[in-house]
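Please produce the structure of this protein holding adenosine-5'-diphosphate.
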Amino acid sequence: MTGTVQLIGPATRRPRDTASVAQSHASPANVVVLDGRPLAAKVRAQVRRQVGGFRRRFGYVPVLAAVIIGRERASRVYVEQILRASRLVGVDSRVVELPRSASADELRQELELLNADAQVAGIIVQQPLPRQIPLSTLTDTILPAKDIDGIHPLNTGLMTLGYEGFLPACAEAAVEILKFHGYSLEGRRAVVIGRSNVVGKPVQLLLVREHCTVTVCHRRTRNLADEVRRAEVVVSAAGSAGLVTADMLQPGALVVDVGINVVRGGIVGDVDFDSARGVAEAITPVPGGVGPVTNAILLEHLIRAARWQKTGHPITAGHGRKRRVA
Ligand code: ADP
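Below is the modeled complex.
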């Protein structure tokens, strides 16, 4: 491990052209750690103001419902973080806990109750679901207007066609963290590792929306290292600790680590941070990178969902607003 790590916030950070950085070979001494907390705080401050305005106008505070199935440590940590973030912006939250052995019908019934509850503006469900519950139980039941993590096919379709809806929060966070730290993405070669519906696929679409040229890698990619080495922007969402090492990166790469892996009681990403920071221009830490931004973005979706439900946005009638965003 070499060099020192700087935590550079948006106030001090100058937008840089990553191509020129790549040529000048970023040294480990000036690697930029893409701290997610300042962006999360900025988004939360905005949401907090919007929650105040909502309460003055409609006389109540919207509720975020989190459904967890089974009580593993990872889901507990996840829910605790969301609850803490909810408190910070002044929205109410409700946790619905089902046993790990819950049936698809039980989940459907809980979701229907939450769908019907006018105070519940948004619903998130901890994934992956246990084996006996198909994902379709969730996507067939959750109302698109309350689907603040963008898993319903309506929201997926709106995203794909570039219309306004709810994006998967984690994918949105992965892109927003780079933009917040001043990196322009236009024209960059990007590699996304992972093709899951929750992260890999949406990240790929959002990077194209930002005008990147995108390659998607997955378990059957023949030579992952070669693909990653060509990338100026690397987003890893594989769920595999230590998958991306320094020798796979080009000097000056921008690295966004979306992986959350529980290793020896702690949480690490997919990227070997200690080696990668010697080569990368900028890298997100795990924890403290994409995670806090994801939570803040979920809350932004929640207040937007609440407003849309009150003011009759087309998504509340099961179709999206025909306003292209990309
Ligand atoms: P997440 O929900 O974080 O996206 P998933 O487990 O659903 O995680 O998906 C992991 C994705 O990462 C899959 O698309 C898989 O093909 C990809 N992946 C996993 N391991 C590797 C690997 N060693 N090399 C390349 N891709 C991988």
